[in-house]
Amino acid sequence: MTDATANAPARSLFTEDARTKKRNRAEARFRAYGLAAVIVGLLALVMLLVSILSNGMSAFRQTFLTIPVELTEARLDPQGNRDPAEMAAVTTFGYLPVLAQSYIDHVESLGIEHDLSPQAMAAMISGEAPAQLRSLVLEDPSLVGQTVTLRVLVSGRIDGFFKGRVTMASAERDANVTPEQLQLAQALAEVGVIETRFNWSFVTAPDASGQRPEAAGLGVAILGSFYMMLVVLVLSLPIGVAASIYLEEFAPKNRLTDLIEVNISNLAAVPSIVFGILGLAIFINFAGLPQSAPIVGGLVLTLMTLPTIIIATRASLRAVPPSIREAALGVGASKMQAVFHHVLPLAAPGILTGTIIGLAQALGETAPLLLIGMVAFVRDYPAAPPEGLFDPASALPVQVYQWTQRSDPAFVERASGAIIVLLVFLIVMNAIAVLLRRRFERRW
Amino acid sequence: MPLLWLFVIVLALGALGFVLGRQRAIASAGGDARQLHSLPNYYGSNVAILTVVPALMVLAVWLILQPMVIQARVTSLIPEAAIEQIGSRSLVMSDVRRVAEGLDTAVAAGALSEAETRGLSTDETDVRARLGEVGVALGGAVTPEVLAAALRYRALDHTADTLRSGLVIVLAALGLAYGYLRTRQEFRARNSVERAILALLMLASTLAILTTVGIVFSMLFETFNFFELYPWREFFFGLEWRPSFEGGSDLGLIPLLWGTLYISIIALLVSVPIGLFAAIYMAEYAGKRFRAVAKPLIEVLAGIPTIVYGLFALITVGPLLRDYFAQPLGLGTSSSSVMTAGVVMGIMLIPFVSSLSDDIINAVPQSLRDGSYGLGATQSETVRQVILPAALPGIVGAILLAASRAIGETMIVVLGAGAAAALSLNPFEAMTTVTVKIVGQLTGDTNFESPEALVAFALGLTLFVITLGLNVLALYIVRKYREQYE
């Protein structure tokens, strides 16, 4: 027994002294910091999703105007012999008065009071509507002379009014819309002529110009992204699996294989924009492939996805126990047969999961696509593959970027809506990957 | 012959070879497959590989070389005077190509006959108008030199196409015949097929090297061109970034690098404390159920595409920071700022830091913890004084990897940081980064002869070198640290 212990004041172990209290407080504080960090992280996720969802959900709904349109022969088919070739001479611009007049007449027949000029009335209808009417008439010339009931888009500002983006107060300051137009729209909505409903064409229609946010859709972008994913899948899966098999099963340990390994792990960390520069320099400037084509995007994304697939495939090949290989070799299989007949099928679920996750990454990638010309404004759907792979197209994430660059505030809603579509695709892909892993994962 | 057809023909020959080789092998063993050295399918595959692989390899090489050879032979047709008039050789050549492709389209559409095309001359016909009729838009009127070159280009291209198809088909047929004749009872078909497969596997794995080489060379080459047009000293040490497409631009790297570093530092200041504390909490404190829910949710942040973060910065974080911090403090009125981009990028990096640190903390042996608890340390004391020092090299590696991510990140800064290059300390001011300027200089119609476009390649190379350096350093540190406990 030392003196120190003997001289210490007698106290119970169950009462904390000042120093223990301090240490315990520090412990609690530290723990709280940790919890706070986790909560901040989760909060950031929630904020991100709420911000995108609250801005973007309205993109799936659109305001339509339903009116009877009298297709006057004098304007649409001056010759009167219903020849589509002749009727094509009447441009979209020629259909506008027909539509506007029908609209004005219909409002009058409903007995709604307003003091708008015919021009201001026509401006309430989307610039896309005459084009819609024109293609309808050209498809079926016999409609000319009849009266058809048509549902057309209203202009972006009127649509914004029903979604709460445009108010009477903001319309005062806006050159594109007047409060009187909004009052008329309100009156028409009360009688059901104008209504806001679910809008499929947001997902199917092509992009529209900066003045017609109400008509802009994701059709071309989704198709372009799909084509690119096709190219990525077709190229990166076989190449990635082949490379992994070589590195994991056959490669001798030498400088070359070391070099390859270092290369792969570095490629996985190269900034994506650098791959865009590679694509621009090699695939477009050197090989002469067309700009904005899904094939170029697919090739660039393939190079980016390969390291992901290789790393996943090697991990799942490694997880197959050596006893399987040895058993196969023992009954007389060659090394190649052992790998292809036994190891590869057992590793397949893991490889598939890795591939899907790689594809999901590639789907959301934007920066390299900006450099290879995917930012071009494309309104035509690409043809079916393989020719369609060389047609200009857009891509989902790039479409989002393009819409953020336009001045009309309605495009913020469109961009957020496009992100919702993108996220839905990603969630589906990741869910498939998780399911595959759950269903087929085997522990040895 | 269209490429697709050629491809299909070669594959069909390959399939034929498979069937023939298999039959011949079985026949050579008198109908008894057991007498063969290998399984019958290997004989078939052997013939198929000999048919398809050399033919397709020649096709690939041909496809790469054909445009280069033709270009070289056509260029000599264009007099120097015409080149000086238009500006550069490559611009003239792209005109030539466009006219040649336009003529092809015209012939395909039936607007011109093959013979008419050969007899075209600029004196008699307005080529631009004729091509315009079939929907081929040309920039300017076609000069006689360009038309002559285009006609020559077409002729060479057609000859080359015919030659290519002939050569490839002949090669495939030869391969088929050779393989077929080699097929005998005692032929070691399996070994031969396996060697071929091994070669293909090796080829696939060298693609990673090819990609790196491609990246380095594509950028080195253009960077070299850039430094011929613009002094390298002014690029690396210039304090001004003011590109103008009329020439006489200032293309200094420093302001871009400063913007990049400033944003990355803010991103790390956000992500490292949050990510590290989250990792510590998950590894040391959290119960199993909390961990099972919270860890995947935080990792969802890592799976969200960067364009989503970019939009988040643009429509939510930017206005928020402007209205509640920048304007009340009198620091600026711009919603895109270093702070906006930095904070959002920090959020993006949280899962990156936390999952890497989590792995590293878990790799610290339990014996160290037990030793510390045995001495009476509390949990937090153990973490701070035992686990963190032991895991430090790994955590530094993780932070370096996160920094390299932050420096190379593009979409968040394109949408959140602004486009004006500035050397300023105010975090609420819009600044720009290396990646933003790469996108800016290379998007849209660019002339690859001007320093304003070529600078993007020099920027890309700089970016590549910096991130590569950080990655190599980080991997080195992490690897070295792992060895300590294994």
UniProtKB/TrEMBL annotation, chain A:
Segments traversing the membrane: 32-53, 226-247, 267-289, 295-317, 338-360, 415-436
Stored CDD domains: TM_PBP2 (cd06261)
Which Gene Ontology cellular-component terms appear in the entry? Answer: plasma membrane
The protein's gene is named pstA
Membrane topology label: Multi-pass membrane protein
Q: What is this protein called?
A: Phosphate transport system permease protein PstA
Question: Where in the numbering of this chain does the ABC transmembrane type-1 domain appear?
Answer: 222-433
Query: In which family does this protein belong, per the annotation?
Result: Belongs to the binding-protein-dependent transport system permease family. CysTW subfamily.
Annotated InterPro entries: DUF3333, MetI-like, MetI-like_sf, Phosphate_PstA
Organism of this sequence: Roseicyclus persicicus
From TrEMBL, chain B:
Q: Where are the transmembrane segments?
A: 45-65, 163-181, 197-221, 261-285, 297-321, 341-365, 386-407, 453-478
Q: Where is it found, in Gene Ontology cellular component terms?
A: plasma membrane
Report how it sits in the membrane. Answer: Multi-pass membrane protein
Care to name a GO molecular-function term for this sequence? phosphate transmembrane transporter activity
Sorted keywords for this record are: Cell inner membrane, Cell membrane, Membrane, Phosphate transport, Transmembrane, Transmembrane helix, Transport
Chain ranges of the ABC transmembrane type-1 domain: 257-474
> Which CDD domains does the entry mention?
TM_PBP2
Q: Which Gene3D superfamilies match?
A: MetI-like
Its BP terms in the Gene Ontology are: phosphate ion transport
Name the PANTHER family for this protein. PHOSPHATE TRANSPORT SYSTEM PERMEASE, PHOSPHATE TRANSPORT SYSTEM PERMEASE PROTEIN
- Name this protein carries in UniProt: Phosphate transport system permease protein
Name the job this protein performs. Part of the binding-protein-dependent transport system for phosphate; probably responsible for the translocation of the substrate across the membrane.
The record's annotation in Pfam families points to: BPD_transp_1, DUF3708
Compartments where found: Cell inner membrane; Cell membrane
Q: Which family does it belong to?
A: Belongs to the binding-protein-dependent transport system permease family. CysTW subfamily.
Q: Source gene?
A: pstC
Task: Please indicate if the UniProt record lists S-adenosyl-L-methionine as a keyword.
Answer: no
Its organism's taxonomic lineage begins at: Bacteria, Pseudomonadati, Pseudomonadota, Alphaproteobacteria, Rhodobacterales
Q: Does the keyword Transmembrane apply?
A: yes
